Amino acid sequence: MSTVAAVSLAACLAIGPAATSFAAPVVAEASPSASASADAKTLRIATAGFVDTFNPFISIYLTPTNIIRYVYESLVQNDAEDGSPTEGLAEKWEASPDGMTWTFTLHEGMKWSDDEPITSADVKYTYESMMNDPMLGTANGNLVANFESVETPDDLTVVINLKTPQAPNPGTEIPVLPEHIWSEVDDPTTFANDADVVGSGPYTLESYSANQSITLKANPNFWRGAPKIDGIQYIYYTNSDAQIQALRAGEVDLVTGLTDTQMTALEGEEGITTHAGTGRRFTSLSVNAGAETPEGVAYGTGSPALKEPAVREAIRLGIDQESLLKNVLGGYGAPATSFIPIAFEKWHLPDDDEAIVSFDPDAAMAKLDDAGWVAGADGIREKDGNRLSIRLLADAEDIVEMSASEYLVPWMADIGVELKLETTDSDTISDRTAVSDYDMYFSGWSVNPDPDYQLGINLCSSRPDAEGNGATSQDGYCNPEFDALYAEQHSELDEAKRAEIVHDMLRMHYEDVAQITLWYGQSLEAYRSDRFTGFTTQPADNGIIANQAGYWGYYTVEPVVDESSSAAEQSGPGAALWIGLGVLVVAAGVVTIVIVRRRKTAGDRE
Amino acid sequence: MTDTITPVNAEVHDEKLAEASPTRSSFLSYFGTKLGGALISLVMVVLLGFFAFRVLPGDPVRRIAQERPMSPEQIAELRRQYGLDKPVTQQFLDYLVNIFTGNLGESYVYRTPVSELIGQYLGPTLLLTGTSAIIAIALGLWLGQRAAWRNGSLFDKIATGTSLTLWSVPTFWLALILLMIFGGTLRWFPTGGMVSPGVEPGTFDYVVDVARHMVLPVVTMVAVVFAQYLMVMRASLLEEKSSDYLTTARAKGLRDDLVRRRHAVPNALLPTVTLVFMHIGGLVAGAVTVETVFSWPGLGKLTYEAISGPDMPLLQGTFVVFSTIIIVMNLIADLIYRQLDPRVRRA
């Protein structure tokens, strides 16, 4: 190859990317406005979530389980208002007085998205599959663990016989699958279920392209009526900053899980509305008050000082929740009482409960004085030669934990407690806390509308063994009185009475200081309000749009009719700029050709 | 993981070659040594692939069960499904047997064979890194020879200065800045992904759409790496510049430009060949950052997700594949260099 050719190749390659990059948007420039109007009825959501599978029997990651909520209706749905049980496939239900038998009546005339009728046989098939095959119980097996048998006296009636009395409605949270599809599948445990899915919810899953997009389309047969938009598209963005840019550029319509800085950056952007919703999550400091196995054998490295209730109470009194909310969360949250978030007002322990204490360093010091902890030379308290020194595990990659720690350390020093910050990665924290190798660490859960599960993982019997295996425990808490109340609420069918017992339990848990609940963080979301409106939040009063315990968020959404002004503004740089750039590229090409030719003739001249 | 292999490698290879004897029979022994080295490296990678990820903290099942309403029976069932209930020695034997049959295990997260996943994600990575490599090589070599020929000129200063500045810029940062300016604010290019949803594969629109999605990641990768080609080409040509044969060529009355293109550049190109091959391996690995920022559905992003999972079989798989690519590319570089350089073959 002559050097002339080599050089011109190099030149073309150098200009090449510029040529494609400048030429391409001219084509695309025309399409955004065209596709924007054509796709105005498709809601595009940015996502980064894992998809293990869309098989409802085994799917456990957040993104697919959220989508499954939209695709398959359950017998009973969690209400948008406050998460309490409301109509799903069943229009009414009744528990026997002893709480051992629940009878559900389905709506008449419901159809799957392929027009087949929805009957009680579908419910029986789904529940029994989960009860009989442990593999099919991977995702929701715990929800049918108390089921003795399922009967279907007729096409519209489902009877669930339980092993023990149960107050929480057994028909919630289990996606009901179409028997006529699933019974034909060779192996339901490995069925991917990721294309042309037959469902009963507001949307059905049309297609899935791993790490690129997930497409849902509206189900015209949905018993509440078809959604007002044609469908939903989840588009993958690994990087959360890229999601923000995609929202600004109008490539997606909804972004969730923002940080407070991202939220602030988006405020005031034209056509975008930011939304801070009351979520179903709490953040806490888990306190190791002495871990024991269910058999009562102590294990772990927890500080003996934390076994003293006075020390735990003092630590709580020394923490300024309001200040953390303001400085760490940018104000996007609510002060917390206990582990049932304010989103579930019925069960939540009210802020004005007599047990709730507020920030009071003087009271904290008085408690420690009374307990015999005396300040030493450096201000840190001592008793019997032991320093009041507590380790706090924090995730070095978690900005919120790191920033909260910066406040906690001096606050504790103020009351004479040395807080030693140990920063590490989340895997190490998970491993160390599993074997109780900690004093305190940042923890938190997303809580379901019914409090039963969350209460249940605070029982003595929920504690794991010394290797961290076996049951799941929230904080390793154990109090036989709490256990007794749990059993009582679990079978109390009168909701008002049940709520009272739940409050008693939360108060007891608060007074025992098994954890220090720091805040209920808000869920930060932003959407293109110039394209869509009418999102239903859960709870209705300033709740969340995405990640609900229900399908309300995207069900009622509708396109904005008048988008004349914003659409024009959205379509990027003007045509003049593109024409100019096009001319430039052509000119560059001409110059290259001239140079190459000159060189060729130069060669001849020699 | 770094994006780059420093140009110093070229010099290392020079030394090796100086030792190597240029006869035919010694080529076989040279080939044998290099191939043997590569195979040993591969075996180490396979072993490391298992053990390195066993010592990492984090129990995948515990992590999945965290914050999920799961009964102990469900957790035990997951452990069984993942094969974690078996002793480590058994898991290791299974791993060895599987890897020799091309089975890299099943991903915990995606519930799909790892080899299948890697196959799916390899294409986009090769497209992205291949395009970037071609552009970076062409741009670097061309600028490098121009800069060297006019050593000390304004062109030289600007080209060298710019490339070195870009080289020292963190890839992640540059990618985000480009994304914000040309994606979010100006809206010239898409902010992520490889293709817009709904575009039919195989159509003209599809090609244009993929090309648009490629611009920002390719520009990022090229900007960060072309410096090393520039520097090697520049250094190599500077060395040639003082050679006698160039004086001879000039003495013949050849135009300066022609001396450069016909005589100096072809000779100076040779040391860069090794670098090119060694670098392709590094470039594939370096795709992790760029693919993550631009949500490019390639191996880099797959690795990133495997780390955040954590998804041990998938991590093992991508680790083995990445390492294999780098080892093979290095082997090719070693062999090609020896074959190509006329000064080595002169006997």
Automatic annotation (TrEMBL), chain A:
GO CC terms: ATP-binding cassette (ABC) transporter complex; cell envelope; periplasmic space
Record's subcellular location: Cell envelope
UniProt-listed Gene3D superfamilies: Dipeptide-binding Protein, Domain 3, Periplasmic binding protein-like II
Segments forming a coiled coil: none
Signal sequence region: 1-23
Tree of life domain: Bacteria
UniProt keywords, alphabetically: Membrane, Signal, Transmembrane, Transmembrane helix, Transport
Record-level Gene Ontology MF annotations: peptide transmembrane transporter activity
CDD domains given in the database record: PBP2_NikA_DppA_OppA_like
SUPFAM superfamilies: Periplasmic binding protein-like II
Major place of residence: other
Solute-binding protein family domain mapped to chain residues: 85-456
Listed GO biological process terms: peptide transport
Record field: transmembrane: 575-596
InterPro entries in UniProt: Peptide/Ni-bd (IPR030678), SBP_5 (IPR039424), SBP_5_dom (IPR000914)
Family: Belongs to the bacterial solute-binding protein 5 family.
Protein name in the entry: Peptide/nickel transport system substrate-binding protein
Species whose genome carries this gene: Agromyces hippuratus
UniProtKB/TrEMBL annotation, chain B:
Transmembrane segments: 35-53, 121-143, 164-190, 210-232, 268-294, 314-337
Pfam families, sorted: BPD_transp_1, BPD_transp_1_N
Locations listed in the record: Cell membrane
Keyword Membrane assigned: yes
Membrane topology, as annotated: Multi-pass membrane protein
Biological processes, Gene Ontology terms: transmembrane transport
UniProt KW keywords: Cell membrane, Membrane, Transmembrane, Transmembrane helix, Transport
All copies of domain ABC transmembrane type-1, residue ranges: 122-337
UniProt xrefs under InterPro entries: BPD_transp_1_N (IPR045621), MetI-like (IPR000515), MetI-like_sf (IPR035906)
Major localisation: membrane
Cellular component, GO annotation: plasma membrane
Similarity comment text for this entry: Belongs to the binding-protein-dependent transport system permease family.
Listed name of the protein: Peptide/nickel transport system permease protein
Organism of this sequence: Agromyces hippuratus
